[in-house]
Amino acid sequence: MLFIITYNIRGITTCAKQKLLRTWLKQTPHDVVLLQELHMTKTNHLQDFKNSFLEYNIVCSLGTWLAGGTLIMIKKKYEIIDSGVDPEGRIAYVKIPCNQIPIVIVSVYAPAQITERCAFFKDLHLYIPSAEWILIGGDFNCSPNNQYDRNHRGIQSDNRSYPILLNELIHPLLLSGLFHAKHPRKVMYSYHDEARNYHSPIDLLFGSKIVKKNIQQIYYDPAGLSDHDYLIINLSIPAPNEKIFRRWICNPKVIKRKTFQEKFQSMWSVFLNLDIINSTHWWLDFKTSLIFLLQEEEKQINHEIRNELRQLQMEYRLRAKDPTDEDLLEMNIIRKNIRMVLEEKINNVLPNAQEQNVKQLSNLAKARIAHSKANQSKIDVLDDPIKGQVRTTSDMINTATKFYEELYDIKIIDTTHWNELFKDIATLNDHDREALDRDITVSECHEALKVMPLGRSPGDDGIPIEVWK
Questions:
Q1: This prediction's pTM
Q2: CATH 3.60.10.10, domain 2-235, yes or no
Q3: Of 111, 198, 205, 217, which sits most exposed with the smallest number of CB within 10 A?
Q4: What is the pLDDT of residue 355?
């Protein structure tokens, strides 16, 4: 079971409010908590909060205005394998494994001003990592149904931003409103303005198809810490029914990096210098080493991108405090740079998809990687004959090195085994080889150009091009 809560808490920087939050959390089952409207604008606010909740891993986007900020609290029994935030205090996301299943959880605090909100929803998909299990929650400041929004006569609700949210995020990622999926006949108001007597269902949870399928419970409840109700969902995470090591897609940028090429040459020279390749079994060992090397290099790429993103966000927050006209121009440049970094991160997740435009990337991530279950696998542990299980990178490399040194001691090379690698490869006879080696004539080129508009391939067979495709 995985319990996830989303809650607009209306400020969490005071000691008194943090004590109330701790008391409430002790009484409420939870594994992950999404909080919005933190009133956190400074790093010391965040550090004080972390010191008060040491038993949680916390990913926070600090606000650039007084009421800003959103964060995700995860109990430390869950490992964070990816995380990120936006520069304005409106988005925080994490990817955690549960029963060996990667789950993406996103906290959203949408702008109250409609023009800002529409622009915000257009770019929201850039912050959503690819995964089969996706859950997005928070204060969206808009309602799925205008007729039920702001239950007070005479108040006109927004009917522009939610369709943008649907078209830019919900539909492309194949998400569903989770409360409505479980309770289609219920209308629940999560925000209450008692003074003006109106209420609004603006605190929402969206999830992918498999998340919706595994909902055990979902409901709203008042916590008493703000004028919002919290929304809690209980997910049943199935035990894995597949091997942990799945097909892994390599980011093509990895093999062009100088650091990778140096490590690869060093590793390959070990195999060559051993000079003892007496069977084809070494190939599996080599592939294992190569995968491990590729994974470590791709981790480094992601680490560099996160550092670059963090530096841009820090500069943005510094300039956002009482900005001058020059600062506003620089902030606009920084926003564009952040978008470029995010697009690069998406392209790293989707190898060979750089030619696709940004709007299609989330669809590709869902359909080609998550649904085919071909995303990156991770070698978590190796068995060392002396130390037992080892998990750190250095220990795993040492274990693998010792294994190969013992495995590939000096032996007589039997080259006949090499023929096993090539026995199923088709070969050309002399006549075909001569035909392929000859120069293509000008007349043949003209003939090919003539038949191309007809949709037929050049040559005697005239087979349509679609057949060869």
A1: 0.56
A2: yes
A3: 217
A4: 44
